[in-house]
Specification:
- The chain has 349 residues and is of the alpha+beta class.
- The chain has 3 domains: 12-28 and 126-209, 3-Layer(bba) Sandwich (FAD/NAD(P)-binding domain); 36-119, 2-Layer Sandwich (D-Amino Acid Oxidase, Chain A, domain 2), CATH 3.30.9.10; 246-343, 3-Layer(aba) Sandwich (Glutaredoxin), CATH 3.40.30.
- Helices cover 26% and strands 24% of the residues.
- The protein is built from 8 helices and 15 strands.
- The chain has helices spanning 20-24, 94-101, 150-170, 179-204, 259-263, 293-302, 332-343, 345-348; strands at residues 11-13, 29-45, 57-59, 66-70, 75-81, 110-125, 129-130, 133-135, 141-142, 215-217, 223-225, 268-271, 286-288, 304-309, 315-320.
Amino acid sequence: GNLKTVISKYVVGCDGARSLTRELMNVSMESLGFKQTWIVIDMIMNLQERSLPDRTIQYCNLERPMTYCRNVGRRRRWEFAVLPGENPQDFLLPQAIWSYLERWISPTEANLERQAVYTFKSEVAETWRKGRLLLAGDSAHLMPPFMGQGMCAGIRDVSNLAWKLSFCVWNGHSEELLESYQSERYSNVIEYIKTSNYMGDFVNTLGSFKVSNTVFKKKDGTAEMKSIEPKLGFGLGDLQDPLRGKKFPNINLVDGSSFDQYFAVRPIILTNISIEKSEADFGNSVIFTKEKSDLDSILKKYAVNALLIRPDRYIMASLPINRSDDEKLFSDKEYDLLKFINANKSFLA
């Protein structure tokens, strides 16, 4: 295609594991210990397909670990590990592929769409920002796919970064705001990478490896795995606030609509107390939970009278119930930030 030149104040490199942006920034990757070669096979099933599982399955096979993925429409994916001493290219030949998949399908039931060699790695970039160049997604961090969190982590990156860039570009905010991007996201994504590593070890050792601290024994003797929800790392807000950096849930409001449908582009305060006009002009950024009973129950769950929620849906500050209503809602830092936001609410609306 034709080359085009684009003038921009910032560039965010979301250009994957072999990031050109990262290369131009001269940023190296730090290994977190996991590296394996796998074969990935994509198939398109015929209309009269054999009944296959309607879910993703990890096969903890000690001889050869593998994964089956029920993808969109008639697409199905198989992934299997290449063992030490084997040549990955040998597995890309059609006869080798069909021989391996014969327990599931035959050549008359599907068309081979794609076969590739993937190297599953766990790595993180040492620096995510240099001046006006930034990294996000796989260009900033890599993890094995056993949690299905690679793209999710990239979405969390851009959710954290987008509103901060918006404030800098459109609202004249200091670029110091961008310094909180890596510090907040780094420790969060590291937890997902480490847990993905543990799960990879689990898949590859037929269940003999304990998967982090996410597996809990129930009273009936069975085990249950719960998703991790790490908080944001050091950055905006008071680290002494126990709710600061926690993810706020996307809930349905009493009218059946989604919370994010209305409040996904601007910071807001949720409160169940009255705010006098003389205290501050909060404008449309205040949501009174008495009008939204679902939100009122959330405040009761957190044992607070108010929450300041960022555009990326993380909690920045909270007002515990044991504080009197006539105290200032938040520390000066959050209070000033909210006033700044409301001064630009015509852009945020």
